[in-house]
Structure formats: C-alpha cells, structure tokens
Amino acid sequence: MAKEKTDLLQGTLDLLILKALQLGPMHGFGISALIRQSSKDVLQVEQGSLYPALYRLEERGWVTADWGTSENNRKAKYYKLTAAGRRQLAQERSGWEKLSTAINLVLKTS
Amino acid sequence: MNWLRIAQSRVRALFRKRVLESQMDAELRSHVEMQVQENIENGMPPEQARTSALRQFGGVDSVKEKCRDGRGVRWIEESLQDFGYGLRLLLKHKGFTIVAGLTLALGIGATTGIFSIINGVLLKPLPYPGSERIVHVWESNPKAGFEQKPSSPPNFADWKKEVKSFEALAFFRAFAGSLSRTFILSDQSGAQLLRGRGVSSEFFRVFGVEPILGRTFLPEEDERGAPRLVVLSYSLWQSLYGGAADVMGKTIILDNFGRHSYEIIGVMPKGFDYPSVSLWLPAGIMEGRFSARFNDSAYVVGRLKPGVTIKAAESEMSVIQSRIARAHPEIKRIGTSVRISTFQEAMVGSSRPVLLIFMGAVALVLLIACANVATLMLSRALARQREIAVRLALGANRWRIIRQLLVESSVLSLVGGLLGILIGYGSIRVISSYHAGSIPRLAEVTLDLRVLAFTLGLSLLTGMLFGLAPALQASKPELTDAMKDAGGQSSGGVKKFLLFRIFTAVEVALALMLLIGAGLLVQSFHLLQKVDPGFDTSHIVTVQAEMAGASFRGDGDRRRFFRELVERVRALPGVEAACATSQIPDRGEGWKTEYFRTDRPVPNITDRDKVGVHPVTPGYFSTFNIRLLKGRDFTEMDVETAPAVMVINETFARKCFPDEDPLGKALNFGKPFEIIGIVEDTKNDGLNSQTRPEVYATYHQWSWPWGILAVRTKIDPVSIGSAITREVRALNPDQPLVAFRTMEAYLAEQLARPRFQSLVIGLFALAALFLASIGIYGVMAYSVSQRTRELGIRMSLGAQRLDVVRLVVRQGMTMALIGTAFGLAGAVGLTRVLRRMLFEISPIDMPTFAAVTICLGLIALAACWLPARRAARINPMVALRQE
User: Tell me, what's the pLDDT at B353?
Assistant: First the structure.
C-alpha cells in the first residue's frame, strides 16, 4: 500500500472512488482519469491501489460491476454505485468533513 | 451482514479462481488499452504510447499481485501450494518419508491402541445408567479366612427385608465357581450350548435395564416352585426367531434341570448380555440348597440409593449380617460382616496392573518414536539450511518460509497419523480376538477418538517443533555463514549433532529397558508352561452335577448316586477311568476343618490347625494320574461303617509328620481318621504357587453336597458328554448337569493371562528395537554424509579405508554403549515393577540382561556398519571437491 504519489489513506481513496461513481457508471480507467482531472493532476491514483480498492468495494457491496462496451467499442468492466454505496458515500463524506475541519482547527491554533 | 458477503466472496475467490483471474486480466488489459488510446489521442506515436502506458501502469504482475492480496484468500492458496510441495518433497525423498512415516505410525498406532484398550476396559463406565451405584455385596469373615465370599439365599432374603441403603437388591445363582450354567438348547437344527443364569426378580432393576419385549421376573418367582419361565437375550432372540415380535408365550426346550420347556416371557435389549449370558431364569427354579445358610451360591448385586456411600451401606449391612451370624453359630463359613465393591471394580480390577504396565511400555515406545522423528526432521532441516538462507537473502518473507516448513511437517505427521490409525485399529482387533477371554470388556473396545486426537496432535507438534527450529534459526542475520556452509562445519551443525547423539543414546536406553522387560516376561511364561501340575491334564473331561431335588434327601442318596454313576460311566466304551470328586485338582481349598493328631495331647479347639479336606471316590488318583507314593488308595470297602481313613499329600505329610512315617497314624477331624496313603503333590493353588497341604477322604465317610464327575477318555468331549448325560438321566431323570469341560481348558485359562502379557510386551519391545536401530542408522548416516569432506581429507592424507570404518563404527558404538549403560540402570529400576507378573525368575536375571544387551549391541553394530561401509567407499578426490 505504500508508494502513492501523494499519500492517500485507504478510506480516502474509497471516498474518491465512490464520489466518482456518483456521477454515473464508469470503468477503472475512467475513474482514475476523473480523479486526476478533478484534482487538477494532484491526485494520481496508481492502478496498484485502484483495482484492489475497487474489488474491495465490490466485496462490501457498495458497488457492482458488469462488463460493458466502452466509447471506443472495447470491452471494459463498468462499476456502478449501489444504494448502500450511496449511503456509504454520504457517511464517508461527513466523516471527511469532520476530520478536515478538525485538522484545520488544529493548524489554525498558533 | 457485511462479513457474510465478504465470506461469500472469499469462498468464491477460492473456487472460481481461474474465472476471476481471467476477468482481472481482461480488465487490466482493457485499462492499458484505454491509456494507450488516450496517449495516441494526445499525440504520442503508437509504440511510445504503449510503452508509456505500460510504464505508467506499473508492473502488471505486481498490480495483479496486489489485487490478489486484496482478495484475502492468499494464505489459503499458499498453504495449499505448500501442501502440494510438501507432498512432492516427501515422494522425492522416499527413504526419509518411509522411515519417518513408519516411525510416527508405530508410535501413534501403538499408543492409541493401548490407551483405547485401557479406556474401554478400565475407565469407561459400564453401559448401564448410574453404573457407579451398581455394586457387588459379599459376606466377609476374616477370622474364618475369607475377605469376601458370596452369600446364601436365606441370608439374602433377610437382607432384602431389612436393608435400607439399596434401591434394588438381587442375586444370581452360582455353582461351585461357575457364574452361569450351561444349558443345552435343542431345536430342529440340533443342540447348542448356551450360558444362562438364575436371577432374582430385581436383578434387571439393579442394572437399570428394561426389557424391550414382555417382562422380567416377579418377586413370587424368586421362591421355590416357580414356573419355568425364561427371558432371552437380544442375540439369542435374533438367532432363534430372527427378531420376530410375537415370541411371548413361545416355549424353548432346555436341558439342565432335566429336559423342560420354558416359556418365553421377555427379551432384553441389545448389549445386555454380560458376560455372554444368553438367557435368564427365575432364581426359584434353580434347585440347590435353597434354605442352607452356608450355601454360598448367591452372588448379590445391588443398586445403591443415590447419595448412599459404599461405607455407609457396608456398615448397615454388617450390622444385619453379624446378627444373622450370631443366630447361627453352628455354621463356620458364615460371614460376620459385609464388604461391598463396585461392580466395575469386581469386573476389571484384576486387569488393572497388567494394563498399567502396558501403558508404561507404550509410553516408552512413543518416546523413542518422537526422538526418532525429531532427529530425522532436524537432520533434514539442517541439510536445508543453505536453501533457506538463500531464499531469505533473495527477499523471501520469513513468515512465509516458516509457514511452508510447518505445512511440510504437518503433511508428514498427517501421513504418519493416518497409518497410525490403521495400526491402532488393527492392534485392537488382533488383541481382542486373541485375548477377549482373559480381559473383561475387551471385546467392546473401539478406537478411542480422544486418544487418537491426542496422539495425532502430539505427532503434529513434534513434527512442527523440529521442523521449525532450523527455520527460526536460519532467519537470523548470519546468512552469509549459512550460505557458505561447506559441509556442516558451522557451529550450529556441531551442536545439533550432539543433540542427535544424545537422542540416539536415549533411544537405545529405552529400547534396552523394554527388551529386558519383554525377555523376562517371555521367560516367565515359558517357565510357567513347563510347570508340572502333578496330575494328568490331557483327555480328561469333567462334568459338574448338583445334587438337589427330591431324590437326594441325604448323604446316602448322594453316595449311591455317584457310585452307580461312576460304575456306569466306567463301563462306557472308550472310557479309561472315571471318578467323582468335590473339586478339580488345581483349584478349590476343600473343606477347611480343624484337626489334631490323635497320638498327641488334645489341644484347645481354638488352637487347632486347619487343613482342607477333599472328598473323592476311589479311582480319583488313578483317573488323574496322581502318583500314590506310599500306602493305598480308597476302595469301596471303606464304607461309612468301616474305619475312617484318609490319604494325605506330600506337603501335608512334611508339615505334620516331618520326620516320621505318617502311615498308620491318625488325625482327628471330629473323629479319628487313619492315614492309609500318601500321594504326590499337585499344584492345587494355581501353577505359580506352592502346593497347599491337603488331605483326601472317601465320599462314603465325608459328606459333600455337590460333585464333579471326571472321566478320562480319548473320545471327543461332545460325544462323551451326551453318553454321560444319558447315563445320568437313566439314574435320575431330573439331574441338573453343568459345565462339560476338559482339563486342558482349565489349564489354558491359567496360562492365558501370562501368555497375553508376554506377547504384548514382546511386540512393544520389538517395535522399540526396530525404531532404535533406525535411529542409530539414521544418525550415523547423517554424520557420514556431513563429514564426507573431512573423511575425504583423512583418506587423502593416508588413512586406510579400514581406519575410516573404524572411526565411524567407534563413534556409533560409543553412542550405543552410553545408551546401554543408562538402559541397564533404568532396567534394574523398572523391572521391579514387573515383579508381580514374573514367575520363578528374578527381576534382575543376569542371563536375560546379558543376552539382551549383547543382542542390542550386535544390532547397533549392524546399524553403524552400513554407513561405515559407505564412508569407506568415499572417493577422496570427489569428496574434496564436494561443496
């Protein structure tokens, strides 16, 4: 799990993936592209972390996967958010907000 | 329910691996393609697009690994892999596998077998509900010379009326030492001999067992004149009626109280037929001296009330019994108190010492086996030290290696364990089939799963422990040393080798102890076999006849009956001799009676000596071929009205008339009996004891309530049995006969247990020897292989092959000698334990010790010889170049 370009906690990666999927079903390549673009190239998720994370999310039932055809007529595995996944996303999100607020507070104190 | 889903996906991951792998493969590949596409769209040339995409992707395989890790079943897959690898490794090193596997199997199998037997015979409670409350009740009168003896029906009746400690009290009838009777059941298919028992009505309640059909006996059927009813055992019911449900009221014809029909009134459930009793009759129809208080034929069993201790019941009943004794002072052999023992104890107690000794022996075998396995595993692990070091240096996970070694040892342990189960099961079967007679409950012993689990666990543990040690050691940082290891000269190797030698010496010591023990037992058995019982044992058939019923009103009737019977039987074709006696020569104490010499002053009655009196008919001594040393035998002239006469045995003659001629002297047993003859001693107290002093009287002049007919003939027992029965019937149609047996059978019984003991311990000792020699061989072979280089150097420096051989052999024999020394010391201590089981041989029998030691020494020599020869064949040039 080491060697990220930026150190992303596992839970945070889950959050990002879930959020990406909120916008609609996507394959792995698309998810990592989306995250990279949205974060203005700061967050570059390595495949070695992405796919294990995707499998893990599938195991937990937060996403489902299915084979489909991509834009270029290639076969690709698409991931979709489930209802439970949506709930999980909201939960993680609020967790993240709380965490970042807390960290900010600490950083503010001189 | 997250974990359920997770578990499901893990299981899926295990079993649909190939599908998942290909899917993952496809997915990652598609990702790469998409990246390539994007690169091309961004303007990269195609090849660069691909390489850049791949580079960015990271190593595809490493990504796959990470994904696989994420699936969470990695360790299972790897363990399965290790398992397969372990199996292949075992197959490759066949020698090691066979030896180690056999060793484990022997250790596990023997231990499991013996412990199962011990558990089944000694420890397991009897299969009756509340079996710890089932007890035997005995009359006791230490002053009269007995600690426990059966009671009599009238005494029992009194007990039943008054005693409060028991939920149920019952008895079963016995007859002169035989706890059941033989019945001849005749039906259309012929005759079969069955064992049956007369029981009182509460008998089945004592054991807490209800019949599966019909009923058992009622209290009124305990009395004389009870109707002829019978309760069948399950197996008899099956064999006669095939388990048909409508057998109530059917009759079977049994021959013992004459030929009678017995109505079936019940069937007992499966398994209630200890000890091989097939039918039960009401006590009331078993004739005999019902009202005689000295008739000790009632074996009383009872079920204590919950909470009543044995001691409490004993005191209560002793009070009752002492009152009875006081009310009947004329009966000498009446109990004055009561002793109670648990039923289980009475059944198996005598086997306890034997079985415990077996347990000790098997523990020794197990120790040897473990030592062997440990040595083998250690030596193999040492050989692999280099391999492990290299793997670690290449970056292998330490825990992965440890896990692999653990799995490999487990594979071996499992293989050995499975074989061990077979051996254990087989040994139980073999021992049961040969010796079910001498040890009770043996026939019902099965492989005990707990013991099996224990021994399997033990072997697993041993394997793991010794397979593990080098792995743990190897993962220390001195890798470079290990990798440069050029032949076991590293410090670890030398220390380990010392350990091997200690192990082997220990094995030799243990094996020696076992072998000596076995040697002593085997010799003891042989000596016992050779004992001359003092009387003829071949071709003699005995029949017990209880004289009861209306035709035997007095002594006169009985005498007449036997005289006529003996005459008739003597006239039968094929009969060489016949007589009647009150007991067979090798057992029974006779009637212990006070006496005094008539030619000496009369002592007080309390000061008089006692001797057992054995009433016989004339012809007894010639039937049994007991030599008459002096004087004459009884004749039919020595009738009741003639002068009373007696024959004495040598021991009694020596005791009572040490320096004089006993002939013509007289002894007073209430009236004077003249001594007319002296016979040679017979072993009347068991083969392994001294002869008891004994005197014989003629049946005319000494009364006795029961008799045994003894017939010497070469005809087979069954034919002569029916001929005898015919004659008896002719004299008395209702005569009960029981127990047709041959003298050989009696003697074989006496030898059964010593034979069993020596056989089993002998087997253990052989196993120990086998294992120990393998141990020696293994260690020496290892040593030679490790020292190949050194030996090569020696030879190139001028050592002769013989020198090398001597070197190796000396090293091995030193080990063996040290082991032998300790073994001898241990044997001296240990064989004292065997003292009880030995006959005419001291536990420190020099010849046995010497023989065994020499034997072991020779085998140890042989075990060293083979590796030594291999050492001698070392080619120095090859050895020097060897890494």
Answer: 76
Q: Which residues of A touch B37 (CB under 8 A)?
A: 72
How far apart are alpha carbons B774 and B618 in whole angstroms? 64
Output DSSP code: residue B628.
Answer: E
Residue (of B473, B470, B463, B475) closest to B407 by Cα position: B463
Residue in the structure block whose two tokens are 């010496």? B505
The 3-state DSSP composition of chain A as helix, strand, coil percent (nearest 5) reads: 60, 15, 25
**The tokens of B583 are what?**
């007991």
* CB of B212 closer than 8 Å to CB of B244: no
CB nearest to B31's CB, from A28, A49, A56: A28
Q: Which residue of B has its CA nearest to A59?
A: B6
The Cα of A101 is separated from the nearest Cα of chain B by a number of Å equal to 30
Identify whether the C-beta of residue B252 lies closer than 8 Å to the C-beta of residue B240: yes
User: Between chain A and chain B, how many beta carbons pairs sit less than 8 Å apart?
Assistant: 64
Residue B582 DSSP one-character state = S
Q: Which of B30, B33, B55 is best to mutate for the A interface (most A CBs within 10 A)?
A: B30
Residue with tokens 């243990």: B510
Candidates B30, B35, B37; nearest CB to A75: B30
| pLDDT per residue as tens digits for the range B774-813 | 877 877 777 777 777 777 788 888 878 888 888 888 888 8
The model's confidence at residue B1, banded by pLDDT at 50, 70 and 90, is low
What percentage of chain B exceeds 70 in pLDDT? 84
Cβ of A51 within 8 Å of Cβ of B27? The answer is yes
The whole-number pLDDT of residue B286 equals: 62
Cβ pair B416, B104 in contact under 8 A: yes
Q: Which of B137, B178, B116, B120 is CA-nearest to residue B343?
A: B137
Q: Answer whether A28 sits within 8 Å of B67, measured CB to CB.
A: no
Cα–Cα distance measured from residue B61 to residue A46, given in angstroms and rounded to the nearest whole number: 14
Tell me the average pLDDT of chain B: 78
Strand partners, B196: B181, B279
What is the pTM for the complete model shown? 0.65
Query: Which residues are CB-contacts of B561 (< 8 A; sequence separation ≥ 6)?
Result: B547, B551, B552, B731, B732
Residue predicted with more confidence, B223 or B31: B31
Beta strands in B533-624 (DSSP E): 540-546, 575-581, 591-597, 609-616
Average pLDDT over residues B252-270: 76
**Residue B713: closest CA among B577, B581, B617, B620:** B577
Question: Residues B575, B569: contact at Cβ < 8 Å?
Answer: yes
What is the full DSSP assignment across B76-87? HHHHHHHHHHHH
Residues of B in contact with A49 (CB under 8 A): 66
In DSSP terms, which residues pair with B198 in a beta bridge?
Answer: B281
- Spatial contact of B137 and B338, defined as CB atoms under 8 Å apart: yes
Q: What is the rounded CA–CA span in Å between residue B90 and residue B101? A: 10
Nearest chain A Cα distance for residue B11, angstroms? 12
Interface residue of B67, B69, B73 to substitute, partner A, most A CBs within 10 Å: B67
| Res. B710: pLDDT tops 60 | yes
Residues A60, B58: C-beta atoms closer than 8 Å? no
Residue of B5, B6, B27, B57 for testing the chain A interface, max A β-carbons within 10 Å: B27
Q: Closest Cα of chain A to B29: distance in Å?
A: 9
Task: Write down the pLDDT at residue A107.
Answer: 92
Least confident of A40-49, A51-60, B457-466, B612-621: B457-466
| pLDDT band, very low/low/confident/very high, at A52 (cuts 50, 70, 90) | confident
pLDDT at B223 over 70: yes
Q: What is the mean pLDDT of residues B246-256?
A: 78
3-state secondary structure B727-780: HHHHHCCCCEEEEEEEHHHHHHHHHHHHHHHHHHHHHHHHHHHHHHHHHHHHHH
- Closest residue in B to A51 (Cα–Cα): B67
